[in-house]
Automatic annotation (TrEMBL), chains A, B:
UniProt KW DNA-binding keyword: yes
Top-rank taxon, per record: Bacteria
Species of provenance: Aerophototrophica crusticola
Record lineage: Bacteria, Pseudomonadati, Pseudomonadota, Alphaproteobacteria, Rhodospirillales
Chain ranges of the HTH tetR-type domain: 17-77
Keywords, alphabetical: DNA-binding
One Pfam family, short name: TetR_N
Gene Ontology molecular functions: DNA-binding transcription factor activity; transcription cis-regulatory region binding
DNA-binding region(s) in UniProt: 40-59
Entry-linked SUPFAM superfamilies: Homeodomain-like (SSF46689), Tetracyclin repressor-like, C-terminal domain (SSF48498)
Protein name: TetR/AcrR family transcriptional regulator
Amino acid sequence: MAGTGVGAEEAPRTDGKDTKEVILDAAERLFAERSYASVSLRELTAAAGVNLAAVNYHFGSKDALLLAVFRRGAVTLNKERARLLREAEARAGDQPPPVREIVEALVGPAIRASLTGTALSLYNQFYTLARAGGPPELREMLEKDVGHLQRFVTALTRALPHLPAEEVYWRLHLSLGVQHGSSNDLGRLATLSGGLCQVTDRDALVRRVVDYVTAGLTAPFDP
Amino acid sequence: MAGTGVGAEEAPRTDGKDTKEVILDAAERLFAERSYASVSLRELTAAAGVNLAAVNYHFGSKDALLLAVFRRGAVTLNKERARLLREAEARAGDQPPPVREIVEALVGPAIRASLTGTALSLYNQFYTLARAGGPPELREMLEKDVGHLQRFVTALTRALPHLPAEEVYWRLHLSLGVQHGSSNDLGRLATLSGGLCQVTDRDALVRRVVDYVTAGLTAPFDP
DNA sequence: GTCTATAGAGAGATAGAC
DNA sequence: GTCTATCTCTCTATAGAC
């Protein structure tokens, strides 16, 4: 892992991951487990099995590494969301897809990923922490980057034509809150329920969240 | 503000707040705006207008200060929640209160506070950040401290007798996620909606969240 | 591309005068 | 109870050998 100095530039490692990826994986995990500010590059590079100087060599700075982690996760996540939404729309033909299927495309990928060993597995927690504790550059990016949500606004507006635009935006906002919140505080939930509520089944959790969100989105509206 | 050395122990200041409170206020604000780890004691004491050494004198350590901020906010918040729930229960007599009123008691105080200048105004954000970025001691405390939620479990179980216990816990968990999420990412919501969605009215926001959460809690259940 | 060594800044905590 | 001065530690970032 610690490199040999052998091989050409960008040569793949024996384990199939180059140093950049190894660093990104470790950063995603550690930033998700604790906050960005509380993880040092020393700790991070040790966990990744690379040299301390490698982060600055490959990314330029700790801040730039954070942005890279974020970008990688966001791209993967939003591709998957878009794919699921496209499939739902194809199934529905000319009609808008059922709200339930739109919701599944919106919240499913992040929740499912948070319970697997994929690259996305920690992206949800990472997002929460980075948004709050990260550098201003990232916070601004998160505030401005809404392109990936536009297609969901469109889909929900078509599926819920009786709602004013403002209401659609608000309900979408709250729904994203449910998605983020669903994987936080699971320890507290286990304590509160005396161990009754444990996440054993990925799809069961997604179903719960989708049920809840669908109910919130389709709630009656009286101004 | 910077103290005069005059006066007896615990003497109130001219502005009515002693040093301890001034520090707690500044800490709550700064920890909420950025993360715990990224705010230095130097910055914090400067913002509070007290001496650098004051934090260690009054609280013992930076970690202990964080716990004190958390405790103060949690006590205030949960007293208010409990009061509202008690009132709703009194109004309902022998019957369980309407779900809507239980929800109002659960999520109202934190959201309302997040838009005022009270001591609680930043507690919501503070909670999110501290949970993730704070010291392990705090994280453990958050996981174990569920006493304040028990009365809400009881109330919801009575109001939603057709739901299995497990389902009640899960829906309560997701509802708390909505509450936390409602005040995050408001900048993104404004961007996404082209400025259409702004929080101008405290009560209007609470009403939106209560509507949404009530729908989620009362959604039909099919196992 | 990887590594060691270190510069330089900034952190939390404390001793001791007032 | 407040303040200055400072100790000690750790951090990010980089220069330069390999």
